[in-house]
Structures are given as structure tokens and as C-alpha cells.
Amino acid sequence: MTENNENTNVQKSAPDRKPVIFSGVQPSGNLTIGNYLGAIKGWTDLQHENDCIFCVVDMHAITVRQDPSELRRHTYELLALYLAAGIDPEKCILFVQSHVPGHAQLSWVLGCYTMFGELSRMTQFKDKSKKNADNINAGLFTYPVLMAADILLYMTDLVPVGQDQKQHIEIARTIAGRFNGVYGDVFKIPEGFIPKTGAKIMSLSDPEKKMSKSDSDFGSVRILDSRDDIIRKFKKAVTDSDTVVRYAQGKSGINNLMNIYSCFTGKSLEQIEHEFSGQGYGAFKLAVGETVADALAPLQSEYHRIVSDKQYLEGIMKSGADSAGRIAARTLRKVYKKIGFVV
Ligand code: AQP
Hints:
binds adenosine-5'-tetraphosphate
């Protein structure tokens, strides 16, 4: 697992082949700054030196019950957010997962090379089962198999994700390795690519818990929240009874705010401690809120410009699905041949 966000010019594995990057986000709610810092922000750097494929993973989203009209709306909105964040559709393939049938097809095959015990150990399955106790469906259980299919279909070298997806990358590697062990060198074994900072942004209301887009309280700061809401959420952030801004054990709330501030300003933790020495938590929280709001403002205005142009978004979805579909079909044909299907 690569834990580095500095060297974006990844080692090439063949002389004329650029490294392939694949990643995606579920359209399962309004994106948080966790999704942004852990994933999307890093994608924009990677797109210059690599062949990047970024997906709106709607098939993953239905592992949790979604309102159909909301899911459709979130799918357009997420694509608009990718673009507003600076992902260039001329450089990257951008598409919607359900538009490329190869994902479901390969997922079925790979499911036959994945062990029940391996899936049972996935912490996301355990967490989401607790959160959705009335809907512990088979899709939630086999989610990592679909994710392995997403990645392996494109012979992906690197998968830029937040810390919470590390276990899913590991199982994708295990599945690919097992398949290759039986049939020869079919799949590229992918590497996870986890940013040095911002890989796990915690909830502002419960800093022991990851910030998630499906949580509804003030703990999740949304990329599209208004300036006032962002500042208000940071002002209310849960901290501790100490008053000194410093990074230390037992100060998970302050540590989280320092991480967020560091991601948006590029300042080190020492610089932040120095900047706020002698000031209380109140001044620090306000500064973090204002910094985040200022940093997101240009992205937000770009988003509002793009999201209203449905035709433009549909054009990108369509050409992205065509390009992704061609690569996926090639991989699937190879896999089908290897396992003995008549193609
Ligand atoms: N809190 C986080 N900090 C850093 N990175 C995060 N990611 C998610 N939460 C954080 C990264 O965002 C990308 C997209 O995630 P996803 O949509 O595939 O699903 P998730 O990991 O389950 O994200 P959420 O926000 O928690 O969604 P819901 O609430 O729908 O389950 C991934 O790269 C993830 O690591």
C-alpha cells in the first residue's frame, strides 16, 4: 500500500503504458470534506501524468436503500462535483458505473474466487450492518467483490482512496492474485494510494468516528454547505477540556481540526501549534471554519455553473461509458476465455 501523495508521477510498468488510476465515489448523499480530502482532491494531481478513470459508483450506493429520485439527482451532482473540483474530462475517463455492464459481469465471476470468510472480516460490512440493521443484504456483503471488479477491469495500477478503503484494496489484491494463480497473468495487481494527510477525516460531533456523507448531524461538513453553515459546524465541533491547540494523544477533536486546517492551508502541525499559541479553541475553530469556507468557495461556484447543464453532463457520461466500456469488454473477454466460457 502506497501512503504518499507527493510522488504523483508513478513508476511506469511498461515503456509505452502510462500508469492506470481508478477510483470512485458513491452518489449516496452530499459529499463531505472527508470524501474531498481523502479522495477527489488527490485525483486532480494524478490526472496529469497517468491514465485516469473516475467513476460515479451508483451500483455500490444501492447496498443501502436509496430514494430513486435522490439517487438520480446525486449521480448528476457527483459528476458535476468531479468537474468542479478540477477533473478534466479531456484527460480522464468519467462515467457512471451502471452504464458499463462489465462491472456487474466481472463481479459475478470474481465472486466465485472470493471466500466467504474473507468477506466476513470486512470492517465496512460490520459497520454498515450495524447502521442498517433492517437491511443487511447480500449486496452489502459482496460490496468488496464489485469494488475488485471495478478496479481489475481496467488493469489498474493505483487506487487513490481514503484510509477506510484500505481493507477493500487488500481483498481486491487477494482476489486478483488468486485468479492469476489459477489462470496465469490475467490481472494487474493494484496498489492502494492513500494520502499522507486527509486520509481519515473524523466527524466533528464524534471525533472517534469517521466523517460520512450518510450521517445527518452537524458532524459532517459538506462540500456544498453554505459559508455560514461551515463556520457554524466548526464552532460547534466537539473538542476537550484543555485549551491549548496542540496535536497529542487524547485530543482527537483538536487533532482532527488541525489535520483539516493542515490539508486546506498546507501548514504543518508545528506551524499550526505556533500560529495559535496563546489563543483559545474558539479562535482556532473560527479560523478553521473560515479557511475551509474560503477554500471551497471557488469549487462551489464552479459546481453551480456546471450542474444546471444536464446535457453537458450527459454527454460526458455517454462518452466516458463508451471509452470505459471498450476497455472493460476487452478484459471481460480475456477473463471469459480463461475460465472456459464460449466467447
Ligand atoms: N472521513 C473520510 N476521510 C477521508 N476519506 C474519506 N472517504 C470517505 N470518508 C472519508 C473516501 O471517500 C471516497 C469515497 O467514499 P465512498 O463514497 O465510496 O464511500 P465511503 O468510504 O463509505 O464514504 P462515506 O462518506 O462514509 O459514504 P457513506 O456514508 O455513503 O458510506 C473513498 O475513497 C473513501 O475512502
